[in-house]
Amino acid sequence: MNKIITISREFGSGGRELGKRLSELLGYAYYDKEIIEQISQRTQLAESYVQQIVDRKPNTFFPITTSHSMHGDGSDYLMKQHASVYAEQTNVLFEMAEKSDCIIVGRCADYILKDFNPLRIYVYANMEAKLKRCYNKANPEEELTRKQMLRIINRIDKDRAKYYHYYTGRKWGDHVNYDLCVNSSVISVKELAESLAHILKKD
Amino acid sequence: MNKIITISREFGSGGRELGKRLSELLGYAYYDKEIIEQISQRTQLAESYVQQIVDRKPNTFFPITTSHSMHGDGSDYLMKQHASVYAEQTNVLFEMAEKSDCIIVGRCADYILKDFNPLRIYVYANMEAKLKRCYNKANPEEELTRKQMLRIINRIDKDRAKYYHYYTGRKWGDHVNYDLCVNSSVISVKELAESLAHILKKD
User: Fold this and answer.
1) Ordered per-residue pLDDT tens for chain A, 203 residues
2) Interface membership of A119 toward B (CB under 8 Å)
3) CB within 8 A of B96, min separation 6: which ones?
4) Contacts of residue B174 in chain A, CB cutoff 8 Å?
5) What secondary structure does DSSP assign to A140-183, as a single string?
6) For residue B157, what are the CA distances in angstroms to A174, B82, B112, B116?
7) Chain B residue with minimal CA distance to A186?
8) Among residues B146, B175, B168, B159, which one has the least CA distance to residue B51?
9) Contact by Cβ (8 Å): A164, A22
């Protein structure tokens, strides 16, 4: 069976950087945006639209009035689209896991690929460190205030937690769902990647 | 400021082994049972009694009838004893942290010593691994059944969670209270200790 590493991460914690570093050090395939591209190709939905769907759980609180005026079709259609995107996501992840050793960022991969016995990592960070990382990556022309950036970070993480819980029934960030949870403000992503690669190469 | 590592651990997860290994690799002092000894000396209470007190949160649900018959003295006395043991525990931990670099296992040290900015580790493990470790350490003459051992593990961890929550207001095992949470059934204590020592020596 191939070796799989799944990385769940708070926004701005450096989870993607960890994935990329591990991929370079171990020679495993690295999948992140590629998953969205694959789902988009298979469902014939635009990548930007798929990205929106996979970033949030389906809105189960469709307004009754709207639902009535659409004879229930609007919410049904949306729910079906979410379900088909999730189903395709599952297919894509299975294919990736069966193809070669790989690292997968996000997408409930720790849950979907549980039978592959992945090494499940959760990366988090102190808010100040997350703000700093987000500012470094942000488009300087946007000129987001600290308050605005805080709101973005909190909203994205809240959406990720809801999405994860919706599809897995589990609590996002609860250590029981991971093998390693690490605060990247204290143990740097670079050091963590090197240590993990060292351990995994011996296995 | 001295370097402090605190280790919280599920029963049978190998947290003490991690502490001892780190102590050997880093040359930091290691404190575990020594804390109880110190509290016992200072409070003039027997070590076995102190051990009982520091293993459980005070019983705040003293029956009203009993309380009445004792004019409230029984529960008051017990509560005061718990409080004085916790206060002494705090003093002992501060003295240890001020003395030299050290590793402290349990005792809410991550919370009590927060101003020392400790590296806070939480060690957990799959139940099968915990059972195995506990059987290896148990007195073979006791001949505990699997069911009995499971009950012991679950009860001790439940008590630890309650104790931690009572004195800190925090949830035991919640990643936000630690810098590193690790499943020792997946990443061995030996490998973890070596990796951490490598990282910490560079700091």
Assistant:
1) 999 999 999 999 999 999 999 999 999 999 998 999 999 999 998 998 888 888 877 765 444 444 444 445 567 788 888 888 899 999 999 999 999 999 999 999 999 999 999 999 999 999 999 999 999 888 877 888 999 999 999 999 999 999 999 999 999 999 999 999 999 999 999 999 999 999 998 77
2) yes
3) B29, B31, B35, B102, B104
4) 175
5) GGG---HHHHHHHHHHHHHHHHHHHHHHHSS-TT-GGG-SEEEE
6) 16, 19, 20, 26
7) B179
8) B159
9) no
> Which residue is associated with the tokens 């970070």?
A153
Contact between B54 and B83 (Cβ < 8 Å): no
Can you read off the two tokens belonging to residue B134? Answer: 């506990």
- State the maximum Cα–Cα separation within chain B, in Å, rounded to a whole number: 62
User: Chain A contact for B186, CB < 8 A?
Assistant: yes
Task: Map tokens 């016995």 to a residue.
Answer: A117
β-sheet with A29-31: strand ranges across: A29-31, A102-105, A4-9, A119-124, A180-183, B180-183, B119-124, B4-9, B102-105, B29-31
> ipTM of the predicted structure?
0.88
pLDDT (tens digit, 9 = 90+) per residue, B72-93? 556 778 888 888 889 999 999 9
Chain A hits for B173, CB-CB cut-off 8 Å, are 175
CA distance A4 to chain B (A): 13
Residues 6+ apart with CB under 8 A from B51: B36
- Chain B residues whose CB is inside 8 A of the A173 CB are 175
